[in-house]
Amino acid sequence: MARLADYFVVVGYDLDKRGGSEGQGHILQRFPEKDWEDNPFPQGIELFCQPNGWQLVPERERPSFFVSVLTDINSERHYCACFTFWEGLDNPQLQKAEASEVDEDEVPGLVQPAQVFAPKSLVLVSRLDHTEVFRNCLGLIYTVHVDSLSVPLETVIGNLLTCVIPVAGGSQINESPVCSLNLSVPQALACDWLLGCFQDQRTITLGAGDRQVIQTPINDSLPVSGSSVAHLFRQLGIVNVLYLFCAALTEHKILFLSSSYQRLTDACRALLAIMFPLKYSFTYVPILPGKLLEVLSTPTPFIIGVNSFFRSETQELVGSMTLDVIIADLDGGTVTIPECVHISLLPDPLLQQTQTALSMVLDPELEIADHAFPPSSTQPSTLKIQDKEIRAVFLWLFGQLFHGYRWCLHIIRIHPEPVIRFHKAAFLGQRALTEDDFLMKVLDGMAFAGFISERGPPYRPTDLFDDLIANQVERIRQEECSPHKVMNHIKELAEQLFKNENPYPVVAMHKVQRPAESPGHNDPKNLAIFPPLDDVTVQLFIDHAAAKLKTAPPMVKAELNGMVPSGPPLGDIVDRHGHVLANSARRLEVVRNCITYIFDNKMLEAKKLMPAVLRALKGRAARVCLTQELNQHVLQNRAVLDDQQFDYIVRMMNCTLQDCSHMDEHGIAAILLPLVTAFCRKLGAGITQFAYSCVQEHMVWTNMQFWEAMFYSDVQNHIRALYLEADGGEQSIASHGQQESGPAAGGQELLGALELASEQSRLWPTLSKEQQSERVQKEESTVFSQAIHYANRMSYLLLPLDTSKNRLLNRSGIGDVESVSNSYVTNSIAGSMAESYDTESGFEDAESSDVANSVVRFINRFVDKVCNESGVTNEHLKALHTMIPDIVQMHIETLDAVHRESKRLPPIQKPKLLRPILLAGEELVMDGMRVHLISDGREEATGALGGPALLPAEGAIFLTTYRLIFKGTPNDPLVGEQVVTRSFPIASLTKEKRISVSLSMDQFIQEGLQLRSCTFQLLKIAFDEEVASDLAEVFRKHMHKLRYPQHVQGTFAFTVGQSGKTLVEHKTKDKNQSIKTLSKNLVKSAKRTIGRQYVTRKKYSPPTWENRSSLQSELDEDEISVSEELDQGSLTLSSTIRSSDRQTMSNVVERACCRDYQRLGLGTLSNSLTRSKNEPFRISTVNRMYTVCRSYPGLLIVPQSIPDSTIQRISRCYRQNRFPVVCWRNSRTKAVLLRSAGLHAKGVVGFFKSPNAPSAGPSQADSTSLEQEKYMQAIISSMPSYCEPSGRNTLGGFTSTHMSTSDSSDKLRQPKIGALMKQVMGGKEDVPGTFSRGGKWGSIRGSGRLSAYNPEVGNRLSSKESPQPNGGPSEALFLRQQRAYLYIIGDKTQLKGGKQDSFQQWEVVPIEVCDVRQVKNSFKKLIKACVPSSATSEPSMTFHRCLEESEWMCLLHRVLQVSVLVVELLDTGSSVMVSLEDGWDVTTQVVSLVQLLSDPYYRTFDGFRLLVEKEWLSFGHRFSHRGAQTLASQSSGFTPVFLQFLDCVHQIHLQFPMEFEFSQYYLKFLAYHYVSNRFRTFLLDSDYERIELGVLYEEKGERKNPQVCKSVWDYIDRLNKKTPIFFNYMFSPEDEEVLRPYSFISNLKVWDFYTEETLSEGPSYDWELVQRGRQERLAEEVPDKPDTTTPKSQRHIVWPCYDSRSRVVPDAITKLLQDLQSLEAELGLPPEKWKDTWDKIKANQRAEAKLENRPSFNSSLLMSSNLSHQRRSQGVYLPESGVGSSINLAMDRETSTTSTPVAGRPSTSTLYSQFQSTESENRSFEGILFKKGALLKPWKPRWFVLDKTKHQLRYYETRQDKECKGVIELAEVESVIPGTPTMGAPKNIEEKAFFDLKTTKRVYNFCAQDSPNAQLWMDSIQSCLSDA
Predict the structure, then answer these.
(1) Bridge partners, residue 1198, by sequence
(2) For the purposes of burial, counting CB atoms within 10 Å of the CB of 1701, is it exposed (0-12), middle (13-18) or buried (19 or more)?
(3) Which of 952, 1275, 1349, 1366 minimizes the number of CB atoms within 10 Å of its CB?
(4) pLDDT digit string (tens) for 654-701?
C-alpha cells in the first residue's frame, strides 16, 4: 500500500522579493509540515509550478493543470501535480509610483492597469503517477474554494493526504465496500470507517460529495501510459518516433519542445513507456523551468522538455554547445538531428518489420486503400487501445532483439546475493550481429546493465516480457514474415497491457464537481483570495490515520517469486540464418581427415591437405570442428606430439585464431584456450614446449573482456558443480567443465546453472546461519581458486617465449639470426598492452622485467575487476596480488629453458633456394635471403581470375650489381613445381617502403619491404624468420648504395666486369682516372690544336653510314686504345693530343650526325674550307669546344649568312644558351624545323651583362635583338617560297575576335591547320586549363608595346582552302597570302610582350606545355594504377579510374597534338621553331616526333637510332638528371620524359603498323634499358659530359671482355642479326608518306609495356638470360622421361602472367622462320640468316605480283593476305574489325589530326568507300550553291551533294573534287526557310533564291542560281527530313 499523496503545497507570488520584471514564488503553506521519514520533501517546487517564471498579468487567465517530474538523489521520481489559478491584487507598480520609486525596468508612458493578477498554485507531491486522479482532486479543492461549498477545505485536504491505495495488484475479489464520507459522520469516525475500507480500496472520496475509482495496475513493473504513446505518434509520426527511440537507447541527448506543459510530460512518459523492458537511467526532466536552462549544456545524455516560449534561448544554448542535441518539436511535428549526430538505427529486417507493424496499427486503412471493394469500416482503435497496440509492437521488437539473452548469462555467485554477468560477445556472435552498431551500443549502455541486474536473477517475480522471451520466441520466429499474424500477436499483447492498466471495468460512479461557470466568472469581486488553511486540523487528520495504520494488522503480501524460464537457446536461430554456418560438409571432412593424418603420422598426406584446410578454416563451422577434433586427442589434459605434428597443429590453431575477432564472438578462442595448454612437445630432459608459446600473436589474448567472459564461464561451471549432488554429477563436470564456455557448450548444462541458482535462492531463507556462511565461503574459495588459475593462463599467453626481448622495441615477428623456423620465436602482446593501458610508465631500457611488469599489471587489473564483481574479500585479493608476480616470474624461468632448447632443434625442411642466372659481368652483392613474395594488387597471379595461385611464393631475394631478383616456388602445392621469377634493374628502383606482413600460413607478423620500379614492377617481400633483422637492414643499405652511386661511374654500365669489391670500396680508380685525365687534357689543349684539327678534318671524308663499321675497325688500332691499357705514368701529354687528332674529330663528325644533315641537304663538311655560298645553311663549329652552349653538340646547322660571333651573342637571350638551330628540312617544301630553349623570362636586356663587357648599355641590348631578328630573317629567306617575286598580302588587318570553334560546317572534312592550331592553343571547346589569350611577338626589339595574342593566327591559318589536294610548293603565292613563313611554338607563359612583326613574316603560337613536375606526378599515379600495391574493391580505385586520374593519356595527347600541328605547318611550307622550356624535354619530344611523322627514314632501324642519337643524346636531354641516376639527382626524382616519347611512338606505331621497320618489342626494349643502366648509351646529360668522361668515343667493345656491350645500339644490331624479334613483318612503307595520327584520348591505348609480366622468366629484355633460362629448362625436361611407353601430351597450359605469350604462341611468320631454322639444323645445312630468307620471299612475291598484274602496295607479304590497308594517312588502324568497320564519321570529321592526302593517291577519307561500289548511288540531289562562311568570311560557290543514304549534306570545292570539305548532318537540321540576302551576297540574284538552313548548332545561309532552283533544294531537303 502507498500514500496517494505525500504533500499538499500552496505556492503563491512573492510580493516582497519582486525584483525587475520577473517575480518569484514562495511556499505559503505545506502539509504535513514535517517530512515523512521515507520520503523527504523535494526542493525547488516553486520553480516547477511556474516553469515560465512568476509574472503578474493584466487579465485573469483560465486555471491550468500539469504534472512535473522531479528526481531525487536516490533516483526516485516525484510527480508534482500543479493546479494554477490567478488571483487579483492591486497593482504594486502604481503603489510604487505613488511612493515615487520608479522601477528601472518600467517603460514610461505605458498606462498601468489598476488591478493585476498573480498566479497561485496548489501542488500535490506523490510517488505514484495518477494524473487524472490528481487533476480531479485539485480541481475539487479549487471548486470547494470558488463555489464556497459548505465543506471545509481542511477536511478535503486531510482526506486527500490520508488516502492509501495499493501500488499494484489491481482489483481485489471483494467488490462491495465503497467508501464515501458523508458530512453527517463526525470526522473522527469518518477516518475510522475509511481505515476499514483500506484493505482493498479502489474507490475514494474526499468528503465533498465526490467519488473516484483508482485503477491500480496489476503488475507495477509494466509502465502505465494512458494514451500518451498514441498521442506522441500522432504528433511526430512513425519515422521520427523511431529515430527518438533509437537515440534514447543509444544514449543521445533528446529535447522536446511544446507550448503545452502537459504534452511535454506525456511525450516524455510515452518515450519511456516504449523503451520497456529497458529503463532510462539518465537525466529525465519532462518540464524544465526557464531558470534552469543551463542544465541543457550537461555532457551526459538526457530527455528534457522545454516550453516553446524558450525556443530562442534553447537554440542559443544548444548552438554554443557541440550541437549534439536532437530536438523534437511536438507542435510542429519535426525532429531535428544535427549533422554531427549519427543515430544507429535498428538492424535491417527488424526496422522494416517494426515500421510495417506500426503503420498497420496507426493507419489500418493504408493497406486496403487500393482495394476495389474496401470493407465498410476499418477505423483505427480508440486512442487508449491504440496506445497499447503501439507498445505491444515495441514489446514484440524487444522480444526479437533480446531473445535468448538468458543463455548468455553467467551466474558467478548465488549466495549471499546472486551475481550475474552477461556474455556480450557470445550473444552478438550467435545472433550474427557482431557488426551491428545499434545492438552493440544498446548492450554497452547503462539501460541494458540495469536490465541485466534487474532481470538476470533466476528467482524473482516474472512479467509479460519474461513470458514473451520464454514462451513466444518460437511463435515470433515463425510469424515474422507474415504481417497479419504479427498483428494478431500484437493485438494479444496489447490486450494484456490494457488489462494490466485497467484491471476492472470503469464503474459509473465517477462523480467530481467542477466550478460553476457563472457570468461573473471573471469579476474579481466575486473571487475571494484562497484562504490560509488551519494546519492543526489537517495535521490532526494525518496523525489520526497514522495511528490507525499502526494498530492495523500487517498486510501479508503473497510471495510471487518463481524461477524465470530461459526460453529456447540461441543455437537454432543461427542455423536458420544459414549464412552463419555456411560450410559444406566436404570442408569439414577435409579438416577431420587432415587431423587424423597428423595424429596417424601420415605427414605427406597431411601436407597435401594443408592448404585446403587453411582455406576451410575461414568458416566458423570448420573452426568449431577443428576444436572438437583436437579435443578428442587430449588425454588427461595432455597431448604430447613430435616436432612435425606440433608444427602442423600450431599452424592450424594460428589460422583458426587469425580470423577470430578480438571479441571472440563465436567462442573459438575460448574453446582453444584449454587446448593450447594441452598440446606440447618434448624438447629435452624435463623440458616441454606447449602450444601456447606459439599462438600468442592474436589480438584476442589482449582483450580484457575476453578474459572476463572466460573467467565467469568457468566460475559458473564450478559453482554449479559445487551444488550438484555427488551422484553422477561429478562425471558430467569432468567431461564438460574444462571445455564449456558460455553458450558455446550444449544447452543442458547452462540450463542447469540458472535452475540450480533459482532453487538455491528459494532455499536460502530456510537455511541456518551456519549453512549459509558455509555456502558463502565455499563459493568464495571457488572464485579465488579460479582467479589463481586464470593468472597462470594469462601469463602463459602473454609472456613471449624469448622474454629477453623488449616487445615494445621489437614489435615485429623477426627472431634472432640463429633462431630457425622450428623454434617459433614469437612476440607477446605484453608490449602493446603496456602501451594501451599503462601510458604513464616509460619503457626506456630493454630488460626482461619490462615484459614481466606489463604482464603483471595487466593480470592485476583483471583480478581486481573480477574479484570485486564476484565479491571476493579483501584478504583474498591481497593474497592474489602478492602471488601474481611470483607466478609470472616462475613462468619466465620455465620459458627461458624452453627457449634455449628450441634453438637447438633441427630446422624444418624448407624449399631449396634457386640460383638466378647472371649476365656476363653481373656479380652478386648479397647472396640469396629467404623471403616470401606476397601478391600485390594485380589479380592474375593470385588465382583471382581462375586457376591456382602463383603467389604468394617462397624463395630468395638476390641483390646483384645490376638487378634485384626474386626466384622461388609458389606456396600452393598445385603449382609447386613452377618457378616464379620477378626482377628489375636496381637503377630503376623508384620507391622503397617498409611494410609488415602477416602470412596466412604462419602466425608471424613478418617484417617486409615493398619495392617499386619504373620498369613497372613491384616486389612485395616478407623476410623469413630465419633472416636476421640486421641482415635485412644491410640489404637495404646496399640497395641504396647501388641505386644512387656517388658518381655516374658507379653505375653498372661502368662497373660491369670489374671485381665486386669496387662496389663497397673503390680501389681500382686508375683506369677511370686515365680517361678523365685524357679528356681534360683534350679539352684544355684543344684551343692550341684548332688549326691542326681543321687539317685533320680535311683528311677525312665524312664516313657514310655503310662504312661506319669499317671506319670503326680502323679506329680499333688507334693509339688511344693502347694508351688506355698503359698505366697513368706512361701517358704523356703529347700522346694524348696525337691520339685525339684523328679520332676525336672524325667521331665528332660522325656523332653530330653530319651524314643526316648531308642527306637532308643542310650543309656538308667539304674538303675545302670555303663555304659553298649557294647553300642557305652551313655546319658551324662555333660550339666545338662547348663554350657557347654546354648542352649542345659540337657541330650545329645555322643560316649561311650568320657569322659565329653573332651566334655567341644571340645565345645569351635563350635559357641555358640554347639558341635556335636547324635540325631537319622538308625535302619537298624546303621548310625547316628549328629547336631552341625558351627566351629568358626576365626579358632580354638583363642578360647581356657578360663579365668581359665594360657596360651593358641599351645600345648593346638593342643590337642583340636586331641580330636576333636578322637571324630569323636569314632562316625565312632560306625558304624557296620566300624568294619568289610577288609581295605578301596578309589578313593581318582583320583581327577576328570570334574564333567560331563551334562552326560545324567550316570544320572541314579533315580539319585544316587552323582547327588544329585552335585546339593546340585552346579554343572555347578545348580542355579546361588552356587559355584564350596570350602574348604575341614577332620582333624581339625592346619596344615595350604589348599586344594581346589574337586568335587571328588560327583563323588566318584555317582560311587556307587549297585548290590542290597535295599542297605542294606550287601554291607558294597563295601560301604567302595566308601564312606566316615561320611559326614559333612557344610557351604561353614566356610570351608576355614584344613588338609585332609588321610584315607578318613570323608568328608565335603560344601553347601550354606540361612541365616536368606534371610528368613526374602523372607517372607516379600511372605506376600505381598499372601495378597497385594491394587489391581493392573500391569503385574509386579501379584500374580505369586510376588511369584517368593519372592524366598520363592527357599528356600524350598534348604532345602528339602539338607535333601533328608542326607536321602540318612544315608540310604546307612554313618553317617552325619549337622553343619550349629549357629546350631539352618537351622540345626534344616534339622535334623528334615531328621528324618521325614527316620523314620515313626515321622509321627504320638506322633512322630511329640516328634520331635518338641526334635529338636526345647530342642535343643534351638530361638522362642522368631526369632518371635520378646518382646521389646528386636523387632528390629531383624520376621523370620519364624519354618514356613519354617512346609511348607516343608506340601510339603512332599502333595506328600505322606498316610504316615502321621496327616492332613494338623494340620500343619496349628501349624503354626498359634506358633506365636499366646496363648500357652507357643513356647515361650522362650531354656530349660535353660524355667527352669529359671519355665515354663518347669508345671502341665498340673492349678486347678483354668482348661479350660486354657498352652501347645499346650495338647490342640491338647484334641481336637483330640473330633473331627477327625487333623486326616488324608488316613493314611496307610508302614513299614520302607523312603520318598524321589521331591524338584524341579515345584513340590512345594503354601500352602493354606497363601491364604485362612474365613470371616464368622475369623481364625478357636481357635476351641472353632468357635464352639460357629456356635452355636450362629444356635440359631439365628431357632426361625426366627415359621411358617412352607413356604417350606425352603436347598440350601446354599458357598463363597470361606466367608465360611469355609471344614465345609460347608465336605469330605465323616467326613460327615458319623457326621451323626453317630447325629443319636446316636437322639437314646439317649452314643456317641462313633470317633477313636473307625474308628478303628472298619478298622478292619472289613482288615478281609474282608483276606476273599476275596485281596492284601491289609496295609488295608486303600482308597485302596478299588481304589486310585492309586502311587509314594510312588518317591514322586509324583497325586490325580487329573486318570490313564492316563502323568508325563514326563524326569522329573522323572532328579529329584534330588529319589532313589532305598526298596527290595521286585514291582518297581514303571516308570509311564508306570500303564497301560501296560507286559514289553516285549516294548522291540523291546535287548542284552549285553559294554558301556564306563564318563571321567575316565571304560568300563562296560550292558543289553540294544531298545524300539520302547517309542522311547528310556534303559540300566540295568543285564538282570533280573527291575530297569532301564539310558535312551537315541532317539529323541536326531543325528547319529550312526562305532567307534574305546579307552583306557580301552574290550580286544580280533575286531575293527568292536565298534560303536558310537552321541546325541545332548554327544557321547556314545559302543562295541558289535562281528561285526555282532554291525551291527545288528546299523541297529535296525537306523530303529527306520527313523521310527520316
Answers:
(1) 1178
(2) middle
(3) 1366
(4) 888 877 777 777 778 888 888 888 888 888 777 888 888 888 878 888
